[in-house]
Amino acid sequence: MDYEAIIEAQLNQIEMSPLEQLVNEVVGQSRGYFEPLSLHDIVYSVLEGRPLFDSDVMISGIIDLFLFEIRSGIALGIQLVTICIFMGLLKNLSNSFGEKTVSNLGILVCSFFVIALCLRNFTHTYNLAADSVNTMATTMQILLPILIPLMISTGSFTSGSILNPVILGAITVFNTLMQMFILPAIFVSAIFILVNSMVDRDYVNKLAKFIRSAAVFATGLAVTFFGGITMVQGVVTKSADGLLINTARYSINNFIPIVGGFAADSIDMILACIAIVKTGIGIFGVIILVCLLVIPLIKIVAIAVIYKLTAIIIEPIGNKQVSNTMNEMGNSVITMAVVLFLTSLMFLVFMAIIIGIGGGRLWRS
Length: 365
Known about the structure:
With 365 residues, this protein is mainly α. The protein contains 9 helices and no strands. Helices cover 86% and strands 0% of the residues.
């Protein structure tokens, strides 16, 4: 029996167009820095033990993408620095000529411009993170109906029947939690920081930092809770599946006369091919999740770097309040990046559990 024919038949029966469409979108968002992926290439790379990527090309692409995003964000930094220079000139003119009312009005108008620029940019960052989380959840919801039947086909009946609703429920609840509470909480904290920048005293600065820290804590708690439950459930069901598979193979090998051993070996080969296909699709899903993380994460980190550098440049000009605001906005953007990373980490844990169950285990004679 030709194992390549079995693998090819399994691949032809799987509807992968939704995932391939996601891959094309990810490659498009990378502006050509990432190469298109093929499920067939990944499966046969797993089968032949070939490396999936050229590490030098991948690292070079990530660096180029980061530098591109930095260059794209320089315009924001230049605008903010220019406004702050103008604010400093107004302040110096008011001290020289005593027209404090006019200068204070001008400084207030400039402050509104700074808030408008930061709010527009942070809204873009918020939408980027929210869309990435939603796309990751959609990717998992597409992968589960493909991977769970393959898992059951390899003999993991208990794992497939239990993990499917557990993981699907965890993804739905977590995505709702992120979209309705955690990401909006970070957005609200950023608004508080911008509002606090208009006054001399700190009225809501500590509240903004508390909301931001609470969002990170809630994300870490949710990832630990859902990931831990799924991992423990996977370990328990994997043990039950192992007992069931060994019993089935022993029965085929010993109770079917003459052809029992041949039938058991043939089933071994078929299940091994299915396991390779499942592992290949799982790795394909992991690559998609990593790309969905890396691209927005690079963009968000680049924005945070722009905010931090702007705060450093503004501080010597003399506008310490605006400098502190830019620094806190950078911290808010970094918080968004941390939340996005923790979210992708939970999804990657789910994929690792699914790949590990029945993925590298063959029945033994």
